[in-house]
Amino acid sequence: MGGTSRGIQNSNLLGSSTHRHYPVNLPPAVNSLTQQVIPWTSNKSHGEPWKSFRTRVQKPVLQPQTVRKYITPIAKVTQDFIERIEKIKDENNELPADFDNEIHKWALECIGRVALDARLGCLDDDLTPNSEPQKIIDAAKFALRNVAELELKAPYWRYIPTPLWSRYVRNMDFFVEICTKHIDAALVRLKNRKSINEADLSLVERILADEKDPKIAYILALDLILVGIDTISMAVCSILYQLATRTEEQEKVYYELKQILPDPSIPLTTKHVEQAVYTKAFIREVFRVYSTVIGNGRTLQADAVICGYQIPKGVQVVFPTLVTGNMEEWVKDAKSFKPERWLKEDVNDKLHPFASLPYGHGARMCLGRRFADLEMQVLLAKLIRNYKLEYHYEPLKYRVTFMYAPDGDLKFKLVKR
Ligand code: HEM
Fold it and tell me: Is 366 annotated as a binding residue?
């Protein structure tokens, strides 16, 4: 399902960017910041306007050599997260029931550091529910978890401001306002900087270096923060749960990391991360079997023939990667959890290259995937190199809350290695 912007448009399963999260026709009664944002956001959701936006921003976000530069700041944030874990675990070395919220804090701190060059203070002690970082997390979660409700169900909000719509708009107003404050601060820092070292530029600064229109940088930063918290956090919840409940595979991850990092205190480099092939294969396998984003879709812009079926223009076509990733037809021995299948030496195993597409595919593929991969690899390298992860409660079921992840308290026990 290649996402070319000519034949198909992104549909609503994820493909989520801030400009798509404000639906197009605002009820007239809604008088809010949203309306100031709409003119330069909503019309950039699809087709040529989206393509033009994406073309202007995607280079620094997807270029491997640019992404690699962020390993040191991401490792620093992750080290602070590990120190926080040390503080919040109880006398039995167990993490609190709301550990998933701690993972969200780590994710926001990472994306704040990368996109805005700012430490947002998410990992500080005793953040209250009213603290700014917690409110950003709650707002981003609310936005992603309710967008499907508004976009896929009957759109009454187009005619009257329904309670959910009004709450959604208030939530987005708050999100935009708070993030704009940080983006403005990043812009002022850039202006005041005397000499600019290319390696030290934040993503927003990189965009502004080539792009004269500051709105583009605003939209990108908002997109990355909005989409870059809950997605990766739920993916990490799933990966840690699988590690904790698959002792044999966790030991393989540990021994690989121990070999790569005999001294766990040495600074992590991209070379270390590149060598951790089994760790990466483990993440890939979790995504195959339990894809965090269950699928994505496109609205056909022209009649098409797909697998022999004639599909008319306008139909929404869904690619359910959670389903295809688990089909024997495309993946040999699909029922077995086998990270090795992603390692090169295992070429004999049937594995269709499109069976598992956790980040989507084509021109609209996840914009944050390289950062997501790097952040997850750094987290595992630090956590699993230093701790054995255990889980001593009833098995958790997976549930879709827009993202697909284990549903329940992640009270992991951490045993120091
Ligand atoms: C492991 C975590 C993540 C997963 C599984 C994931 C998955 C996806 C998927 C499936 C799409 C839709 C792709 C398509 O339609 O073909 C998407 C889009 C997107 N993702 Fe991610 N994502 C993750 C993390 C992130 C992060 C950390 C960021 C930001 C730093 C991010 C930013 C975006 C953006 C901006 C889009 C919209 C792209 C566009 O429409 O042009 N994602 N993601």
Answer: yes
- The number of beta carbons lying within 10 Å of the beta carbon of residue 66 is 17
Half-sphere exposure of 70 (CA within 13 A, CB side): 32
Q: What is the pTM of this model?
A: 0.89
- Say if residue 49's pLDDT is above 60: yes
Closest CA to 282 of 328, 213, 236: 236
What is the position in ligand 1's atom list of the atom closest to the CA of 375?
27
Mean pLDDT of the chain: 85
Q: Whose CA is nearest to atom 18 of ligand 1?
A: 366
CA 231 / ligand 1 centre spacing (Å): 8
Rounded to whole angstroms, how far apart are CA atoms 222 and 302? 31
What CA–CA distance (Å, rounded) separates 366 from 356? 14
Q: Are 381 and 243 in contact (CB under 8 A)?
A: no
Pocket, ligand 1, Cβ cutoff 6 A: 3, 10, 14-17, 54, 111, 223-224, 227-228, 231-232, 235, 292-293, 296, 358-362, 364-368, 371-372
**Token pair listed for 7:** 């034949």
Choose among 226, 405, 234, 409: nearest CA to 322.
405
